[in-house]
Each structure stands twice: as C-alpha cells, then as structure tokens.
Amino acid sequence: MTRARQDDDSSKPESRNRRNLLLCGTTLTAAYLLCALGTTSLAQQTTGTPGSPSATTTIDGKYLPPPPPKFGGEINLGASQSKPYWPAQVVPPKGAPNVLLIMTDDQGYGVSGTFGGVIPTPAMDRIANAGLRYTQFHSTALCSPTRAALITGRNHHSVGFGVITEMSTGYPGYDSVIGPESATIGTILRENGYTTAWIGKNHNTPSYQLSLAGPFDQWPNGMGFDHFYGFMGGETDQWTPFLFRDQTQVFPWVGRPGYNLTTDMADDAINYMRGLNNAAPDKPFFIYYVPGGSHAPHQPTPESIKKISDMHLFDQGWEKLRETIFANQKRLGVIPANTQLTPWPDGQPEYGGAKLQKWDTLSPDEKKLFIRQADVFAAYTAYTDHEIGRVIQEVEDQGKLDNTLIIYISGDNGNSAEGSILGTPNEMAAIQGVNIPVAEQLKFYDVWGSAQTTPHFAVAWTWAFDTPFKWTKQVASHFGGTRQGMAISWPGHINEVGGIRTQFHHMIDIVPTILEATGIPAPVMVNGVAQKPIEGVSMSYTFDKANANAPSTRSTQYFEMVGNRAIYHDGWLAATTPPEPPWDLGFGKFPDVVNGYTWELYNLAEDYSENNDLAAKMPDRLRDMKELFLVTAQKYNVFPLDNSFTARAVTPRPSATAGRTLFTYSGESSGLPYSSAPDIAGKSYSITAEVEIPQGGAEGMINTLGGRGGGHGLYLLKGKPVFVYNFFNVERFRWESPAALAPGKHTIVFDFKYDGPGFGKGGTGVLSVDGKEVASRTIPHTIPFVETIYETFDVGVDTRTGVDDKDYQPPFRFTGKIDKLTVKLVPMKAAEEKLHQQKVQETINKAQ
C-alpha cells in the first residue's frame, strides 16, 4: 500500500507548542502546568498609561483566561498617600475585525440563487459580489454535528457530536457533549476582548439538559457567548416558538398578531448591535447568526408566499427544476463546465434502490399540492435571506462594513428528505413514519405554512435542490448531503470581488480562518484544561487573488453519519453507497455496518458531481482510500460505527426522568421541555388530578404536553372534565364527562391501557371522576415515539398552542385549584419488553 500523505503543519508555532505539550504530558497536574507554561511567552502589551482607567492590553492568548495582573500602584494607610492602579482592559489585536458568521438551515447546494438556484437570495448575492464564492465547501450532513464542528474547529466526532443530540449514545464520539478541552470560538474571542452573541438555533445543548435543572455549561452562555436569543433543538414553530433569552425561557408564550420568529431574530441581532454601538462603539463583536430557515416547519409570512407563488418557479416540476438549476450553475461558474448532471434516482443499485416519481406520472391534485409545498419552502428561504440582509445592512449603517468579516453559509447540510415521499402538513408525523395522503393534505392547502400547519415538502424537491449531486441531508457519503454554498467578504483584505474559489474545505476550517483574521491564536489551555488541537486549517490564503488557484491546504477529510461514510484525499473521494434512502428514516433493513457496505470511488478533479464510479477500475486505489478512512476515523473518535436510526432515537439518556415511573406536581407550573417530562408514548399510563372547584364552577387546563401539531390535554370545559388526544392534527380522540363538576374536591383520572408490544399501536382510555367511569373509548393508533419537540409540559395553564382549537385558546388558565397532579407510567414486564423489542425490530426490518 502506498501510504496517503497526511496534513502536516508541524512547522507552525502553534503546532510546535502542541508538540511540546505532548512531550510534557497530558494530565492536568501542577507539573504539567509548569511544563506547558514553559513552552510559550505570556507577555502582555499594554497601550495607554499603565494603571489608568483607559489602559488596554492585548494578551498572548495561549492560556485563557490570562493570569490576573499584579497591582502596580501603591497602598498606604490613607488614600491621599496611595496610588490607584486599574487593570488594563483586554482588547483584541489592533485592527481585528468584527465577525458576522451566518448559517442557514437545510439548504442544499442548488437552493440559493447565489449558487444557481431559482430562489432569490440577494443578501447572499451581496456578500458574494463583494467577496468570494466557495464551490467545494462541506458540512457533516446533519444539523448538530455541523454546528459543533463550526463553533469548535474540530471534527464532529472529536467533540461528541457524531450524530444529533436526540440520538446520542454513551460513547465519546456520540455523547453530544462539547467538553472543556474543546473551547468554542465564542470562548476564545470573548477572552481576547470581543463581545460575543449567538442568535438563532441552538442544537448543541444535550436534549436531556434543556430544563431549568441544567447544567448550563453546554448552553450558549456556558460555551463562551455573552448573549443568546433563540430556540433550543433542531427546529421550532415560527409562530409560537420554544424560545430562550440566555437561560430564561420566553414564557409564558402567547403569540401576537403578525409575529414570526425569523423577523424577531433579525430584530434582536440589530438591537444587540445598536446597543453595543451605543455602549462601546470601538469594541469588536462576534455574532453567530443562525436562523432556522429553511428547516421544517416551513413557515414564512403570507406576503413572502404570495411573492414566490406569483413567480411560478415550480410549475414544470422537479426534473425540469434540476435542469434549470444545472444550467444556472454552469452559467455562474459555480460548477465546472464539464460537470455532469447525475441521473434521477430510478431504483438503480447505485442509489440504494431509491426511486422517486417522475413529474409527468403525477395526478393534477398531486402536482397542485407539490407546487404549493415548493412555493412555501422557497418563500421561507427567500424570507430568511431577506431578514439576514437587514442584519448585514445594520453593519453598514453603523459604518462598520469595511472592518467586518462576513461569512455566509447556505445550509448546515443538504436539503432535508424528512418530509416523506408525499410531503406533509405536519413534520412530526413524517419523521415518525406516518404518511398523510394527498387528499388529506389538500385540506391544508390554503393554510400551508401558516400557524395551522408545520409543513415539509416531498423528497423529489429535496433531490432537485441538491443539484447537481446525488442524495440528501443525512447522507455523509455524497455531496448531496454535505456540499454547501458559501460566500465570504472582508473589504480591503479580500482583494478580488465576485471571485470563485474551488479549494476543498470543511466547516472545521472556519474557526482557524477567523483566528487568523483576528490575529488571535488557538489557546493551549482554557480554564486550566489542556485543549485538543484545532483540527481545521485556515482558508485565509484564498483571500488573495494571486492564490485563486492555489492547492487546497486541506488534503484529507473524512465524513460519517449513521453508517454512511467517505474519505477525501488529494482530489479523490471514496464513499459508501447508502443501503437505504434517508426518507425511510431507519425503518429499512440495514447491512452489517462494518463489512456490509459497497464502496464507490471518484476522481473529483475530473468528476465534480460524483457521477462516474471508478471503484471497479481502480481497486488498489480504493483499498488504500478505505484504509485511510479507518486510520482517520480512529483518530477522530468515529468508532463504534452505528447505522441504527430508530433504535438510537428511543435509547435512554441521562436525565431527570431516566428510570422514573411516577411524577407529581402541584399548583401551576409550565414550560417543562418534553425531554424532562413524563413520556407516555408507546406505553400504558394514568394521569390523576386532585382538584378543588370553587363556587360558581371552574374551567381551564389541568395538564398538557404538545399542542396543535400533536399531543394530549386534560382540562375542564364549562366545568366538564375532558381528555383530548391529538394525533398529528389529523385525528382527535376525545373523552368527555356528561356532567360539570360541582364545587368542592374531586379526583379526575385518565387511565390508558396500551395495545403493545410495538410502537404507534392503539389502546383503550377510561376517564373517571371520583372513582366512577364517565367516558371510555378505544383508539386505533397513537403517536409512535414523541408527541412534540417544541411544545412544553404544562400544569394549570397552556403556554403555546392548544390541543384542540375548537375548545379553547391558550393560555386557558385553570380557574380552580390543583392540589396534586400525578402521572404514572406503567413499565412493561420483562417478557413484554422482550416481545416489544422484537416487534419494534420487525417493523424496522420492513422497508416502508
């Protein structure tokens, strides 16, 4: 075997320091600290008069925070005989720019107009036309992992994010914990004198740490950001979001007319910059601005939907859309002239058997629905870009554009295929394998994208928006999952405007690029913890027009997600063939993850779109590339490989609910995240409410989890006990007492016997009052895995959307008194649990 060349930057000072640290040892002992301190200087350079209130200092930056300075004044018995001395304020190196780091969500390479798409993205155009477009820039293929790589400069498995946090497992590469040995860019810049803000999506706090119980070291404030305003998790409803300011939930939530989160986040970024400019106009900022568009639910404003619909961008269907995007990409020069458009998936083995409908085979109703889905997605994308444009304009309005490095990344992965073959008015249904028929979806046509829906589009649109590549989000082996459009501007430092750069780079390269631009080194130690080396390489060499065609400084990069994997090296890429399409959501039958995958081989210098598989012609090169993957994967915590999807989604994780079967509450409480609430999915349970009804009667919410999109609620309506189970806003099952409760104390019980084993099964529910049955019914099915991910568990009030809009509107506060609420989960017996797991596996093994 010819050994593949590895990236080697040992000649750099920071690499020599890391080498010295390794020689010293890796344990955090006093001896190690002394050894580390001997490897570099801690000299600080002060400007202004030392000890004066206006004195500033730049720091070496290798050890954060820097040691406190010695008092340089004099202290005697009286102040008049003493000399004051103020510690110098830490500031970045002279000329360090502001940094605005922008990333959108679930947008493939062919989405933005900037990279050949049909959707107008003038804000991204503005950055590209003032700077550079990058045509070989890559993500990890999934949300949380990409974001972890982006903010740490390290590979996603290196920082615990081998997969999204909702699927985390107890291995170092997969536990969704960014450890103290991997300080974020927020921490590094803040300790060097920047003000730091994170606005938008946070999908890097472990899902089991979202409650007020914390801990908070994995929240944005704990990861180096002075200010956080946004939502927790992969997505949220844009009309009634699950929203936080720093560590405090924006709560209780009652939406106001015309509100949309995308505009709200832009407003917050603008207000933050204005406040900072008023307080300290010369202090540089780092703003990590990551709105949720275009991740489902696709919920733009009605005005943006009309604007896009009037353009008739999608009337000719998804295959014609691919051809249009492909032609645009060639015209713009964002793909090479010899690029081939990969074939439409039609059941071929090289597509894992995946097959998508052709547009001309669809019925008129199907075409009508699918065009509506695409219009709303496009409107959401254009609307998001418009709001980003407002943030960029604020930078200019403050006169800071010339000293601001702006990085705008289109998407954290390829387009999402999680909306099913048909699309859906309820994304929570689709990601749990519940397909809603076209006829049922058309009932939501006029309100698609409004607060009445949480929609996603059909997979065929997904494939088209990833033009010219194969595959989609989740698929790390192919560029349809990992190729992102990116534009960078920095007036005066990027000496070519409207240029194109073709060097191969990755999300982990953004942190070292920012550090080089600001003149700040990667720290060796932060808060007494030795740091993992930054694994990215700076892209700043590409800023100079003279280096437009320079070889990439990134020669090797691995990719892995849910078993699909690839390795890039010096213009070649070896990749596994996905055994099942991602829109099967792990329900298909998967081969052995280690030895059961077929590998492909591509010469990217001649084959930009991964169209010509050379594996059969060049087995020796493929063997070498596969061996290189194993070596690289071992280095970055990729093992153990795991291609399970559903099984990982339901695996237990550390939390306050782990192992609990009995939960008690009293009075009014709300805002408890779903991950910290009793989980009734796929099991028998009972909800018991001990209430006191005042004279004149009472009504209101007693207990709820979920809302309009799915969930359950126990409440009094005109004094009558009611239990509603909302099955994805498609069906509602109702139990209602015929009589209102009289004044006094009462016990209301809803008891549900689940028809397991398996998931999504039905069961029988009984509503009783004071020991007497008042309503009973059997239902055919239940929500398979999770009722909601962006509504909360509330007692005595409903803080977001209601489970039945016809009955009430939030907050629907309970007007009686809740003495005690008890939720009891009924665990399966050992034999039942074994049978349940068998049934689950049988379902998983049947491809949908």
Automatic annotation (TrEMBL):
Record domain Sulfatase N-terminal: where: 97-520
Database matches in PANTHER family: ARYLSULFATASE FAMILY MEMBER, BLL2667 PROTEIN
InterPro entries: Alkaline_phosphatase_core_sf, ConA-like_dom_sf, Sulfatase, Sulfatase_CS, Sulfatase_N
A Pfam family: Sulfatase
Protein name according to UniProt: Arylsulfatase
Record keywords, A-Z: Calcium, Hydrolase, Membrane, Metal-binding, Transmembrane, Transmembrane helix
Family statement: Belongs to the sulfatase family.
CDD domains linked: PAS_like
High-level lineage: Bacteria, Pseudomonadati, Pseudomonadota, Alphaproteobacteria, Hyphomicrobiales
Entry's transmembrane regions: 21-43
Gene source species: Bradyrhizobium barranii
Composition skew (Low complexity), residue ranges: 43-58
Sequence segments annotated as region (Disordered): 43-66
